[in-house]
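Our collaborator T.R. sent over the components below with a one-line note: 'Predict the complex.' Nothing else. No constraints on interfaces, no templates requested, no preferences about which chain binds where. So this is a plain run: every listed entity goes in together, and whatever single assembly comes back becomes the starting point for the next discussion.
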Amino acid sequence: EAQLVESGGGLVQPGGSLRLSCAASGFAFSNYSMVWVRQTPGKGLEWISYISSSSATIFYADSVKGRFTISRDNAKNSLFLQMNSLRAEDTAVYYCARRYYDFDYWGQGTLVTVSS
Amino acid sequence: EIVLTQSPATLSLSPGERATLSCRASQSVGKYLAWYQQKPGQAPRLLIYNASNRATGSPARFSGSGSGTDFTLTISSLEPEDFAVYYCQQRSNWPLTFGPGTKVDIK
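Returned assembly:
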């Protein structure tokens, strides 16, 4: 069965950077587009970035455009999110998810806390 | 950006009762509406895609209907494990957006 495991979260100061990783297994990773979705404490879900299977198409939410960069390594079955210029409002649990029609498999999430 | 509105915010029901959750879009999303279930400490789980198709592993008591701007998720008879938060999500237009959620709790 498909499995996604995020890593790389933690505590970072405002203005700092962090790189999240998502390790995929149990499916043909290179055939699927992927997304990052975050969830702020006590609030709902926010899609933040999309990458197509070949990396040819990438989209970002306005809230992270210019600060976050999504990428993938199909040879290593891995998805990444480089987060720069972090703000307090970026504090959230970050999920990677597989996109097939909608988001059919999710990781367990990794917590990013932006605070001084 | 397409805004999704869910109602009610909270639904208090007893096991065995029928639950009807609503999701309304600020503009047409066609059939491109999904429903997710989320329990505390867990990732969301896809229940319904394309408005009415059950995802793999989604029990038959869950059904979705609607098109355009008005959608409904129905749980025919609530099981104890169904008490959770339910989100709708559209993939008709970028950015992809989620509704604020409906919490189904035990009466």
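Summary for T.R.: Chain B touches chain A through 22 residues (CB under 8 Å).
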